[in-house]
Design a protein that fits this description.
505 residues, mainly alpha, 22 helices
């Protein structure tokens, strides 16, 4: 009997060891992620192109005060979405695969929609009760607030449905719908501002029309109707979604505080929207373009990393390599856009927004650390310990509020940029200090080293062009960026003499 147990234990151990060896040999899904990135790329590039086009258009047809009012309206919209809706979409993405494997996707969809409907009721009640406090405190017109509340309905559905589309890994459809939404918004907004004279309100109206059309297409794309059976609402599912998602809402709120609260502090300090116009343009020239551009890596990677984790595979090498690619791709833009900030602002925006040059270098640095932290915090999402992410986001967010309030009267607008950079750096540092066992972030030494070497020739080129040749500054900047990528590709081919095995996944 004892020998039988021993044999069984030995056999079990051998099976476990074999499974571990097979898992260790299993190649990383880097190729699959790259394929998804290529499919998502048109939507992101068009989105970036749209954001780039919007800056000169809006800054030429809106005054800084009007642009500032638009920035405040969008910040208010994002605040309400964070509190009530964004976390539902993120939770939906995180648990979709698990419930699909269980075969209870119908109850899962129904529970998601029930939770979404409940939050609509709570949001409208909160807006109505606190309407006078919100409009008076933030100098926001009442009709803007009520329209924002209505706009949240299609925005919240779009957020949830886009996450479902990502969970089903349909990047081509995601791309098509994103592009259509982007250009429809731009076209309608220009018409309403220029010919109807609606000012910043025209942008919100254009968003509403475009997003509603996108939602209709998304409903049929994710086959939502096949999952709506309210009699099968599962409250344990709702409990798990809330337990996972509510800390995310607080974490996102902390991120909002880090990047958006300065607008409201400036609004209260200067008693008008002029400087918020400058801040809004600065963020749009940095976060809206560059962070959106390189978010494509995470958009493509996160669903597959979740699948790896659900199949009990080690995700650390994949996360490390992807963060290395992020660093390699972003470094030249961070360096040279900051170096040529005056020329960049002059190219992108109307001269009346020229003070944005004070903020662009700081916000480019904040972009970098904000994007990089997306990789270092994957560990909390996989372990479903989003409360850790919440805590480490809240700390820099709260510190940032105090710093902005204290230093804004002394140093003016530059305080906003310096605080954004400091809080994003602190958030990144906390995320690599507070780690989950076996999920910690590995520093991508190879990619960082190659990036540093690849920068040498572009820096020399910039120095040469600046001192010896009369070349248009934007041409200098673009030439340096292109040379960097050529150097990096050359170094990559030199270091990787043979194709890495994990690219065949």
């Amino acid at each position: 009997m004892e020998s039988t147990k021993t044999a069984q234990a030995t056999e079990s151990t051998l099976e476990t060891t074999t499974t571990e060896m097979e898992s260790a040999k299993k190649p990383l899904p880097i190729r699959a992620i790259f394929v998804d990135m290529v499919k998502y790329m048109p939507s992101k590039l068009v989105g970036v192109l749209g954001n780039t086009i919007l800056i000169p258009i809006y800054t030429n047809i809106l005054t800084p005060e009007q642009y500032g009012l638009y920035a405040i309206a969008i910040s208010t919209l994002s605040f309400l979405c964070i509190i009530f809706f964004d976390w539902i979409g993120t939770s939906g993405l995180r648990f979709f695969k698990a419930h699909q494997l269980k075969g209870d996707i119908t109850k899962y969809f129904s529970s998601l929609l029930f939770l979404l409907g409940t939050n609509f009721i709570l949001m409208f009640a909160a807006v109505f009760i606190f309407r006078h406090h919100i409009t008076g405190f933030f100098k926001l017109p009442m009709h803007f607030l009520f329209f924002i509340a209505l706009l949240i309905i299609p925005v919240a559905f779009r957020s949830l449905l886009f996450q479902m589309l990502r969970a089903q890994i349909k990047p081509s459809l995601y791309t098509i719908l994103t592009i259509a939404n982007q250009f429809t918004t731009i076209g309608i907004a220009v018409l309403l501002i220029k010919y109807a004279g609606w000012g910043p309100f025209g942008i919100l109206a254009a968003m509403a029309i475009s997003i509603v059309a996108t939602d209709v297409a998304l409903v049929f794309s994710v086959k939502l109707f096949s999952g709506i059976k309210f009699k099968k609402i599962n409250f344990p599912i709702i409990k798990h979604l809330c337990w996972y998602g509510l800390p995310l809402a607080l974490a996102s709120l902390s991120s909002w505080i880090m990047t958006q609260s300065d607008k409201f502090i400036v609004q209260m300090h200067y008693k008008n929207s002029f400087y918020n116009g400058i801040i809004g343009v600065s963020y749009n020239m940095t976060f809206s373009i560059f962070l959106a551009m390189f978010a494509i890596i995470m958009i493509a990677a996160m669903p597959r990393i979740i699948i790896m984790y659900e199949h009990q595979e080690d995700t650390r090498e994949a996360t490390s390599r992807l963060s290395g690619f992020f660093i390699a791709l972003t470094i030249p833009f961070i360096a040279f856009v900051s170096l040529y900030a005056p020329e960049y602002v002059k190219l992108m925006a109307n001269p009346k927004f020229g003070e944005a040059v004070k903020l662009v270098p700081f916000l480019m640095g904040a972009c970098f650390f904000t994007g990089l932290t997306e990789y270092t915090t994957i560990q909390y999402h996989l372990r479903k310990k989003t409360y850790i992410n919440t805590i480490i986001r809240m700390i820099p967010g709260i510190i940032g509020i105090f710093l902005t309030i204290h230093f804004l009267p002394k140093f003016g607008l530059i305080t906003v940029g310096a605080t954004a950079l400091f809080t994003s750096c602190l958030y990144f540092l906390l995320s690599i200090i507070v780690v989950e066992k076996d999920l910690e972030w590995w520093f991508p030494l190879k990619e960082v080293t190659m990036s540093c070497f690849a920068l040498i020739l572009p820096v020399c080129l910039v120095a040469l062009l600046k001192t010896h040749y009369s070349v248009y500054p934007i041409t200098q900047m673009l030439s340096a960026i292109v040379l960097y990528y050529l150097c990096y590709i050359g170094l990559w081919k030199f270091v990787s003499k043979k194709r890495p095995a994990d690219l065949d996944a």
